[in-house]
Structure formats: C-alpha cells, structure tokens
Design goal:
Rossmann fold, SH3 type barrels, Elongation Factor Tu (Ef-tu), domain 3, 6-stranded antiparallel barrel, 5-stranded parallel β-sheet, 8 helices, globular
Length: about 375
C-alpha cells in the first residue's frame, strides 16, 4: 500500500478543487485512473464514449458501459455517456478503410487518440467545466522549466503506450493526465483489489476495437461497398507465384495465409497498389535498413536536430537506434544501425530520446 501512496505523490496538476474528466471504458486501467484522482482529492467526472456500433460488433458493449457506471457510483462521482460515432467514423474508420484499400497498414489507435480521445472527448470535457482529462494510458507527461509539456514512456515499459500518443499537441498535453504512468500493471491490479472496484466481469481488450482481427478484409470490402480486385503474387525477381484476392488482405511481414508452396518460409516484402501485386520473398527480403516518414508531428512543435535517436516502427516493437535526417518540417529520413524486419508503410515511426517521446510520422513507400 505504501508503494501505491508513493506513486500517487508523483501525480501533479492544478488546484485540487479543479474538476478532472476521466475517459472511462469500464476496464481496469481507466477505472483505477479515476479512483486515484478521487483519492487525491480532485473533483472527478467519468465520461464514456460510444465510438462505433456496427451490427454485432462495438467498441463498447452494454456491459462495459454498465461497469463504468458502477465504478463511478462506487467512487461517488458523476458519469455521462457520450456519442462520438461521427468523429470516430471520420477520423478513424474511413481512413482505416482507405489505407488498407491502397495497400497500407494503418495504425488507427494513433489517430483515435489524436482526433477523438484528445480531440472530441477533450472538447466535451471542457463543456463539463473540467480543466483536464485523464485516461488509463501508460505514459507520462511532464511540464519542463521552459514551459513546454513533454511526453515520456511509462515506468512499466512492458505496458508503455506512448507510441499511440506521439501526435498530441502542446495544447492537448497541457490538459492531459496519465495517473498510471509511474505504476506497474501489477500495482494497478493491487490498487483495484484494495479499493473493491467492481470489475469482476471485465473482458480482454484487442488491438482493433471496431473490427475483429480476423475480419479486417471483409470489413474493408463492406465499407467500400464492393469486392476488391484480385492480382498477382510475385517473387522479388518478377516471377508469378500465384494469385491473390485483394491487396487489402496483406501487410508487409505477413507469413501466414499466402497460399503458395515453398521449401522455405516466405513473407510479404512489399505491396504495389499501382499494378495490384503483392511481392513475396524470404525473411531477409522483408528486412530494410531505412524508411521515409511523412506528415511528421513533434511534441514541442519543432523537429529535433539531425542525429542518432531511437525509433519505434510499430507498437510493441523495441525502439532501435537510428539516424534521422529531417528533410523538411513534415518529412524525415530514418536509417537504422541494424536493419529492421517488416517496416510497414502506413504504420507510425516514433522517435525517442532515451525515454522521451519527441514525435513521429507515417512510414511511406519511399526508401529501401
């Protein structure tokens, strides 16, 4: 219990009389985030957002909403359910579908955090007279002596979610709180148990909240209202190896489901939407030493000086040492000291200086 109190002391914000909104999904992390802030004496209001509902699949099920309500009742705080389906469709679902149709591998959680959770939801929090919004993300935000807000990896690097938050602006970070940033998952579970939070019926989360992982191809076709055209599976040297049912069914680094016979494991090494082809090769062919990154966004508002940093090219990928060169304010070239497997166009490349998140952008097809 002492360790929990020590971690509470690490969270600093404005006057304790200020009201803080907490984005609550009904899960463990957001519930503990709310409970921590209540323990610290803040006025807290819980906000649960319906972002997607399509047939039998939803980002939230009724049990999630009811659990969030029960947690708020347990903590004696107000709870509101909001409709965020329009911004979620515009900023997350529609770009997701377009990118898969164009042979890219999107990272929708990055866009969701930037545009929905810390866009739409933060705006609604202000309307509830809240000065800041907290979430259950594992990350840390610290205000520097220069007045700039800086984003850092979580103390528990196994659960770190700073990758998904790298596009947040100074305005957004100034109004953000991450109470779990200095806590381990084990400590969060201990805290929930000690405080009797009603979370017994929790369900496991998944990578994509709005579509099941094994139904992405069908989801894309349904949203496009058409069946995608098939094309050729080709080798690195241009030989035809087979046919495919649409480039939206593939991603760089994919091994399973290729439908070709080979004496060695084969992987998707690139996707060419111009001629609707998918290039297949051995694992070493999917290993690249560099990539071009576009539409960059930097936490402090300015790109870092060219030089060596750590770069993460997908969530749960260990950041690797790389040299970055900013071509201009919105593009950078990344060259890795050790070539990396499955650098996928469409994914985010996030730049770190030690544990600090500097920013990042979207991997393009340029660069080998």
């Amino acid at each position: 219990m002492r360790l929990i109190r020590d971690n509470l002391a690490c969270i600093t914000m404005n006057n304790k009389h200020d009201q803080i909104a907490v984005g609550m999904s009904g899960g463990l992390d957001s519930s503990v985030a709310a409970a921590l802030l209540v323990d610290m004496g803040y006025k807290v209001v819980g906000l649960t957002v319906h972002m997607w509902k399509d047939g039998s699949h939803s980002c939230l099920i009724d049990e999630d909403v009811e659990r969030a309500r029960q947690v708020c009742s347990h903590l004696n705080i107000r709870h509101h359910v909001l409709n965020g389906t329009v911004p979620f469709m515009e900023h997350v679902v529609e770009p997701f579908v377009r990118q898969y149709a164009n042979g890219l591998t999107p990272s929708p959680c990055v866009s969701c955090n930037e545009k929905v959770k810390f866009g739409f939801l933060l705006t609604r929090a202000v309307r509830f007279d809240c000065v800041a919004m907290a979430t259950g993300h594992y990350a840390r935000v610290i205000k520097g002596k220069d007045g700039k807000y800086r984003l850092f990896r979580a103390a528990d690097t196994r659960k770190d979610q700073s990758y998904f938050l790298h596009r947040l602006s100074q305005r957004q970070l100034a109004c953000s709180m991450f109470p779990l940033g200095d806590m381990s998952k084990e400590l969060v579970k201990e805290y929930a148990a000690q405080h009797g939070l009603p979370l017994e019926s929790g369900r496991d989360s998944q990578d994509l909240c709005f579509v099941k992982d094994d139904q992405v191809a069908e989801f894309v076709e349904e949203r496009l209202l058409k069946r995608m055209s098939g094309g050729l599976l080709m080798s690195q040297d241009g030989r035809v190896l087979g046919e495919h049912a649409g480039i939206h069914r593939y991603t760089v680094g994919q091994r399973r489901g290729l439908g070709i016979a080979s004496t060695e494991p084969m992987y998707v090494t690139s996707i060419n939407p111009e001629n609707n082809s998918v290039i297949i090769g051995p694992r070493e062919s999917a290993v690249k030493s560099s990539c071009m990154v576009s539409n960059t966004s930097w936490i402090t508002g300015a790109p870092p000086a060219d030089g060596k940093y750590k770069v993460c090219v997908r969530y749960r990928h260990e950041p690797a040492i790389a040299t970055i060169r900013c071509v201009d304010h919105t593009r950078m070239f990344v060259e890795f000291g050790t070539p990396q497997f499955a650098i996928s166009p469409g994914q985010a490349a996030v730049v770190y200086a030690d544990d600090e998140v500097l920013g990042g952008g979207w991997i393009t097809r340029d660069g080998e």
